[in-house]
Amino acid sequence: MVLSVLNFMNQKVFFSLCFFCCSGASLLASHVGERLYMQKCSHCHGLKGEQSVFETSAVIQGWQIDKTLQALHGYKDHSYGSTKKGVMKVIVARMDEKSIEDVATYIENLK
User: Fold this and answer.
1) CATH number at residue 62
2) Rounded to an integer, what distance in angstroms lies between the CA atom of residue 79 and that of residue 25?
């Protein structure tokens, strides 16, 4: 009986640790995306992506990851954006691929 209880408790601890580790990676990525968004994007696009920049850009709130990745890569390779894309070109030029993906994931979840 005592061994059964200890075995059950060990299994609970094991599964709790597995859940914590797996969800922790996801939470970390989300946190990194949020931090980057707040540092690099929120000043123009708003805290939740709700603002149109210069009244010419689309509101980015809730954009699908693929759409955001296409836009950010386009700014980086100069194939995307209107005549007012200068600021975005400078911001994205300093971002690595992981940072771009983290921000895109964060933007998709903005509501």
Assistant:
1) 1.10.760.10
2) 33
